[in-house]
Amino acid sequence: MRFSFCKYFNRDGKILFLSLALLFLFFNKSQAQTVYGITKPVDIPFEIHNNFIVIPVLFNRTLPLNFIYDTGAEHTVLMKREVAEIMKIPFERRLQIIGSDMRRELFVYLVREVHLKIGAINIPNQSLLVLEEDYFRFDEMAGLNVQGIIGADVFRGYRVEIDYRNRRLTISPSSNKTPGKRFREIPVEIYKNKPYFETDVLLSDTTNAEVKLLIDTGSNLPLILYTDTHPDLDVPENVVTGAVASGLGGSLEGVTGRVDKLPLHETGFKLNEVTTSFQELIIDLDTTRLNGRNGIIGNPALRRFDVVIDYPRSQFFVRPNKYYKEEFEYDKSGLILIAGGASLNQIYVSKVVPGSPAAEAGIFRGDRIVKINGIGTAFTSLTAILKKLKKKEGKKIKLVLRRRNVKMKRTFRLRELI
């Protein structure tokens, strides 16, 4: 039996969007266990790395792991097969899936009765998927050891509040009460555990389009729009061209630019000059798995709000927080970086955007960054380095590189690319 696996990611560490829609046949209500016994709010602390929400999870009562919290994933996934093998968890069956290029054949395993503890919450008898190989390599992108994805199936029976300011998830029983002052409700659809809402996107002064967006905390892109799903989703003039995302077995080409405004339905809240990836869907893709959506809204946009999703009541609330008016920053170097090494403190160039400051400075794919502005990369993080490369235009960046065991220096100034 073959299934399509619509979960794409970008290995260059810049962008990623996740929308797992797989194996619904094997995850009926009796198999995909949700959390039971929560009668009052429970707080779960999280960290943010490269715009991913990372939650500590105690796996099978023994092993502490890091999982990404992903409202855009229908099911929970273990990316590291060796974890299941070390814990001697039996694989119930091996299943064939199709890569994001819709050609390459890949494999996952189905496992059951796994115990997860997230904060003070115990999740018994959880069914999940185990990747035969670590196709996603989140550790490279986040600069942190990440072993899995907490999908929407885990908390689908509850109200989930995401507090980006204090980095806290709050899980509580579903309620007909408004979450608090200044919260405004947006009509939402819950389909296969995943939340969607509709709004207008203002692409320019003269063009707007009604779109349906997946609310996806597993994305470190602000916004993705599928240009071939709507006649008015035109690509802006000022864009960076290249691979928008690559995934299970293939690259997904596209461009990155900005849209003028992203209103959040009729709340009166809107985001300006939103960094956006424009992508064409794969030819002959089974679009029923996309539930008619035109794109996704990810963490860099969502983090500007306090967010509440009440799954049983199909409700979605937002309230602006201190990040609401922050500008959407985009890389000004042209460097696409990933983390490597046993401690993930070695920073490598995965790609260089043609015509960018980094390309003009003679930096190549495969170069290892040893220092940035005098600070050794072993003493910083991938997230901190990426933040430096989004500083003000004109800022000087001094790099010490290692290329084939030869040390060299390169200097350039940041420049707006979109």
What does this structure look like?
- The chain is mainly β and 418 residues long.
- It has 3 domains: 2-172, Cathepsin D, subunit A, domain 1 (Beta Barrel); 184-320, Acid Proteases (Cathepsin D, subunit A, domain 1), CATH 2.40.70.10; 335-413, PDZ domain (Pdz3 Domain, Roll).
- The protein contains 5 helices and 31 strands.
- The strands form 4 sheets. A 10-stranded mixed sheet has the order 3-2-20-21-22-19-23-18-17-16.
- A hairpin with a 2-residue loop joins strand 10 and strand 11 (121-131).
- The longest helix has 7 residues, at 382-388.
Which features would summarize this protein structure in a list?
Cathepsin D, subunit A, domain 1; ten-stranded mixed beta sheet; 31 strands; globular; single chain
